[in-house]
Design brief:
Blueprint (H helix, E strand, L loop, with lengths): L5 E5 L19 E5 L23 E5 L9 H4 L6 E5 L2 H7 L15 E3 L20
Parallel strand pairs: 1-2, 2-3, 3-4, 4-5
Length: 133
């Protein structure tokens, strides 16, 4: 999948872990994961470096209540401009501004969107990507 630029994984109710081959592309710009109730982890890809996903600009995670942590290689991608975490309580607590244990890992991202009522900064294109059911 070397040309894959946008990937949406949604409504996979039995999925507990995202297969690592889905993120092994240098062209990926947008990643959306939504409504995966049992999803607990994304591929860690410990042998990979940040530059392995050099074009990722947008990461959207929604309605994944069991997702515990986001891999560092996704958060450290210097091109990442938008991060949305919506209705993912474990992630919201972990990355919460000023309070979460890993806030420092996402604080450099220009546009961060939390659940509907909390904003970290101004977003101009929030409605652009939605899960399709």
């Amino acid at each position: 999948m070397p040309r894959l630029s946008s990937l949406t994984v949604g409504s996979c109710n039995k999925l507990k872990a995202l297969p690592d081959y889905l993120l092994q592309t240098t062209a990926l710009q947008e990643l959306s994961i939504c409504s995966c109730d049992l999803l607990e982890e994304l591929p860690i890809l410990e042998d990979r470096r940040t530059t392995d996903i050099p074009r990722l600009t947008s990461l959207w995670i929604s309605d994944c209540p069991n997702l515990k942590v986001l891999p560092d290689y996704l958060l450290q991608t210097t091109t990442l401009q938008e991060l949305t975490i919506h209705r993912c309580p474990l992630l919201e607590n972990r990355y919460r501004e000023g309070k979460g244990e890993d806030w420092h890992k996402i604080s450099h991202i220009p546009h961060i969107k939390w659940s509907i009522t909390r904003w970290c900064c101004r977003i101009t294109s929030f409605e652009r990507r939605r899960c399709r059911y």
